[in-house]
Predict the 3D structure of the following.
Amino acid sequence: MNRSRAFTLIELLVVIAIIAILAAILFPVFAQAKDAAKKTVSLSNMKQIGTATMLYIGDTDDVLMPLRWYDPTDQPAPYQSTQGFFFYPILLQPYTKNVQLFYDPKDTEDDVAMHYSQCPQSGRFDTTGCAYWYLTGAYPSYGFNRRYLNTSQAGPFGALTYFGRSATDFGTPAQTVLFADATGKDVVSPGQPVVRATVGYHRIDAPSFWRSPALADPAARGIDARTQGQLWGRYDPKKVTVTWLDGHAKFTAISQLKGTGSTAAEIDRYWNGLADQ
């Protein structure tokens, strides 16, 4: 007669221990693979945004889009919730036809400090909110090199108005920053609390505009994003994905985006089109 043999307690504990060891080994590998997949998606996003920009300037005699323009009287469907602020992600919608391109897969946070003052309950990803398109434009994952690629002046409605410069003004487009991973962290708006979450942001600044953190702010924690012009590495704190003015995208060390020298023109050479000088 055959007799079935059950596992002993020791054998069961050994099996459980082996499974635990394998899990401890494999889970970090799975996490790294997932992170790498998200990084690939972000790089693809930035390449497509670069392509959309090339299409845009092809339709405007090589003139780049403005960081934003503001006209509270012009709110066409479906962009009524821009509140009149047409940031660059909105201006590129006819070419991308995709909002998600402007979000890194890891950029999923929200922060009440950045909500639009007239409808503070409207969150960043609330598609039915009264400020959805405003927040989409103001807080994408990728910031625009507005100081060098735009000019600006006071607008007719009280907000600063931006104008795109000609792409042909820049002698080294393959070495001139167009967009890069960005965050609105540590940004202070008039009458608003400081943004604490690592949400995206619509603009980035060249090294000559990088600022020291506000020492008077006792609540500041960790890296102050103002010390690197709102650049923000989501996959490596020392690197960001950059879309360059010729449309290509590359994962680049933040330190490599600052030129050598003592003048603003020298240290901003990868932003102002003077990389070969």
User: Anything to note?
Assistant: Strands lie at 68-70, 85-87, 142-145, 150-154, 160-164, 177-181, 203-204, 239-244, 249-253. The CA atoms of residues 23 and 204 lie 41 Å apart.
